[in-house]
From TrEMBL:
<dbReference type="InterPro" id="IPR029066">
    <property type="entry name" value="PLP-binding_barrel"/>
</dbReference>
<comment type="similarity">
    <text>Belongs to the pyridoxal phosphate-binding protein YggS/PROSC family.</text>
</comment>
<feature type="domain" description="Alanine racemase N-terminal">
    <location>
        <begin position="26"/>
        <end position="227"/>
    </location>
</feature>
<dbReference type="InterPro" id="IPR001608">
    <property type="entry name" value="Ala_racemase_N"/>
</dbReference>
<comment type="function">
    <text>Pyridoxal 5'-phosphate (PLP)-binding protein, which is involved in PLP homeostasis.</text>
</comment>
<dbReference type="GO" id="GO:0030170">
    <property type="term" value="F:pyridoxal phosphate binding"/>
</dbReference>
<dbReference type="InterPro" id="IPR011078">
    <property type="entry name" value="PyrdxlP_homeostasis"/>
</dbReference>
<protein>
    <recommendedName>
        <fullName>Pyridoxal phosphate homeostasis protein</fullName>
    </recommendedName>
</protein>
<dbReference type="Pfam" id="PF01168">
    <property type="entry name" value="Ala_racemase_N"/>
</dbReference>
<feature type="modified residue" description="N6-(pyridoxal phosphate)lysine">
    <location>
        <position position="34"/>
    </location>
</feature>
<keyword id="KW-0663">Pyridoxal phosphate</keyword>
Length: 231
């Protein structure tokens, strides 16, 4: 069932790309495997799935250590500064940098290992009280700060978690604002910064996100089914 679910989501993304004149290769589908067993990841690996999203550092680290072959783990959940050391080298992309304090901690740990860390800046476009992330007007200043002071932190783009809505069309303005912000920042040609990644869209709204320019969509429920957070 997991394989069929994944293929169904991928096909829907490809169809959306075709309709809006984009190449399907432009959109990466991350299978959000948080709270799901390693066996689910192993099953998807057999059909060539290579990118998985995790919310918690501890869970990501455990799966990283135990998975049968190397895959790309994305940290999509909030990252506490005291967990940074544990995740360096295990994640291909941290989607959730939302403060200079966090970027500074990543810089320190990356410098110790003489490596660079790819990150996205998390933007709370809808300004929901329950979500992490910066306001739109705060993003450019933070990016400039990180670019100037954190040479081991490579900003690759932006991420947002849109509101959970019944009608995905309600989130179109959210995705549109993030894309416009990305274009505005790209036009500034800030050293050490690229805006090649727009991580936006989840199970309930990923088609709209693709139509509005997402280069990464993070889909969990439509692939793995509902989660049991009590286990």
């Amino acid at each position: 069932m997991l394989k069929e679910n994944y293929k169904k989501v991928r096909a829907a993304i490809d169809e959306a790309c075709e309709k809006c004149g984009r190449k399907k290769e432009e959109v990466l589908l991350i299978a959000v495997s948080k709270t799901k067993p390693l066996s689910d990841i192993e099953e998807l690996i057999t059909i060539g799935v290579n990118d998985f999203g995790e919310n918690k550092v501890q869970e990501l680290s455990k799966k990283y250590a135990e998975v049968s072959k190397p895959v790309n783990f994305h940290l999509i959940g909030h990252l506490q500064t005291n967990k940074v050391k544990q995740v360096i080298g295990k994640t291909c992309l941290i989607h959730s940098v939302d403060s200079f304090h966090l970027a500074e901690k990543i810089e320190v740990e990356a410098a110790k290992l003489d490596t660079t860390v790819d990150v996205l800046i998390e933007v709370n476009v809808a300004e929901e009280d329950t979500k992490f992330g910066l306001k739109l007007e705060e993003v450019t200043a933070l990016i400039s700060d990180i670019a100037n002071k954190c040479p081991h932190v490579k900003i690759k783009g932006l991420m947002t978690i849109a509101p959970f809505v019944d009608d995905p069309e309600e989130n179109r303005p959210v995705f549109r604002k993030l894309r416009q912000l990305s274009l505005d920042i790209k036009s500034k040609n800030i050293d050490n910064v690229s805006m090649e990644v727009l991580s936006m869209g989840m199970t309930n709204d990923y088609i709209v996100a693709v139509e509005e320019g997402a280069t990464i969509v993070r889909v969990g429920t439509a692939i793995f089914g509902e989660r049991n957070y009590n286990i």
